Amino acid sequence: MTDASPAFEKLKVDFMSRLPRRLERIDALWKKLIYLRWDGARLDVLINEVHKLSGTAGTYGLVGLGLRARALEAVLESVRGTPGAPTTEQRDLISRFVAELRHWEETLGPEDDPVASLIQVRGKAPHVALIEDDEQLAQILCLWLEDMGIRPHLYANPEAFDADDSVYRFQAILLDLAFPDAQDGGLKWLETRGRRWTARSPVIVMTSRTDIVSRIRALRLGATGYLIKPVSRDALEMRLGAALKLGHRARDRVLVIDDDQDILRYYKRLLEESGFEVHCLAQPLETLEVLEACQPDVILMDYHMPGCTGLELAQLLKQDERYFQIPILFVSGSPEALDQRELLSIVGNDFLCKPVEDVVLIMHLRRLVAQARRRLQTIGSVSRRPQPRGLMNRALFYQELEQHVAQVRSGKLPKDVVALVLIQVRDAGVLREQLGLRGTAELGMKLERLVAEWRDVNGMGTAAGDTACLCLFSVSDPAVLKRTLNDALEKLEGQLSESTGAQISLVAGAVLLGGSI
């Protein structure tokens, strides 16, 4: 839908290439603050760096990184609003967030589960294109593929593949990245002519390059897998099995909500050609009835619609236990939507500014569906809690934290005063020697369950290690926060000591997330 995609892709590649240095700078700024001298000007620089990262990470689809950066920004803003250096507990909390930034992971490809039963699809051998200039390697790969029950089609380069006018609909494509006349020939093909294939078939890239930049670039261009040369048969079978599973599973279901019938017809044609099952709705006020009937995997919606805005509709869905886990992608070009971009990305799951390249839209939809599916597998059910009366999954907790921060920033302060609290078992290393690994694990689970049951927490928390947790603690008056928290900790120490037979001591640090933001 736009010719600006190559420029946008270039920006994304540039962002990823500079990301490690940005994370190192954040880590260095924080270490200078705590180990050299606490300085307000340096803190301002750190907050600015984290703020810029939180804004750009989500733009380029790095959802987990964006959530971590926003959580860190919220805590740093709270510390900036208090006089003097932070307490030991506050420093520990911020250090945890900084460490999480340095070790973030974005899993964009399918799970690496070998699926031998999927090699034969509907009794027919699947067709796989192999684009590889190394004749010896190509012969070996073809033999392996044939032995797996797959029909390989060999091409010496992307140009030969494009020139083939055969009627085969390939179930997967194996693509080399480097060719004699173009070291990045595979990547350039993905950027241009290969786009129509990444929208229809899984593409697995093969290369001897191990740098993160080329890997991220391939994934962002639509590749679903990455194999490092020399390729082993086990790795090929595992990755290809996952790709065929991705290509032949039931079609992902998309609900498109837009009052413009022309837009609905366009999306329906585009998404159906890309393998989605598409349901269209022109009346947003009928969303609940349609959701009950079609049960979509992802929702694509506009911002401006009659009867309610996309933001209002998304907020309604996120408050409904039946539908809160369905990812939402906003697509809009209105100035009002752009002003609300950050909030839309919080209440929804992603935001794209019109005009949007077709392949970019499809990639975002598939990524959201894959992330939602992995999240549900991690949690174990569609419940927002990983276990009854337990704390939340960490990503979901960060979303809750960010929604609270967004309310504060927009002037919609919660009725109660909310503090971000870190609770840790004191001398955990000594206890680990005393209780053993299993006993320590049971202590951590007991700690999570008891904290989740606190009336002032109500499950709004997450594990922060084997024997630590983060939670949102609500009180009606900030003056009684310390006393209320100390009383709760004293009771908790007694419960844990009784259940383990050991003397358990806890330490906690709290940061107010109210007026100081």
From TrEMBL:
Residues that bear Phosphohistidine: H51
Alphabetized PANTHER family for the sequence: RESPONSE REGULATORY DOMAIN-CONTAINING PROTEIN (PTHR44591:SF3), STRESS RESPONSE REGULATOR PROTEIN 1 (PTHR44591)
One annotated GO molecular function: protein kinase activity
Pfam hit, one: Hpt
Superkingdom of the organism of origin: Bacteria
SUPFAM superfamilies registered for this protein in UniProt: CheY-like, Histidine-containing phosphotransfer domain, HPT domain
HPt domain boundaries: 1-111
Domain Response regulatory: 127-244, 253-369
Keyword Phosphoprotein: yes
SMART domains: REC (SM00448)
GO biological process, one term: phosphorelay signal transduction system
Record protein name field: Response regulator
Provenance organism: Thermohahella caldifontis
Residue numbers bearing the 4-aspartylphosphate modification: D176, D302
Taxon lineage: Bacteria, Pseudomonadati, Pseudomonadota, Gammaproteobacteria, Oceanospirillales
UniProt keyword terms in alphabetical order: Phosphoprotein, Two-component regulatory system
InterPro entries: Bact_response_regulator (IPR050595), CheY-like_superfamily (IPR011006), HPT_dom_sf (IPR036641), Sig_transdc_His_kin_Hpt_dom (IPR008207), Sig_transdc_resp-reg_receiver (IPR001789)
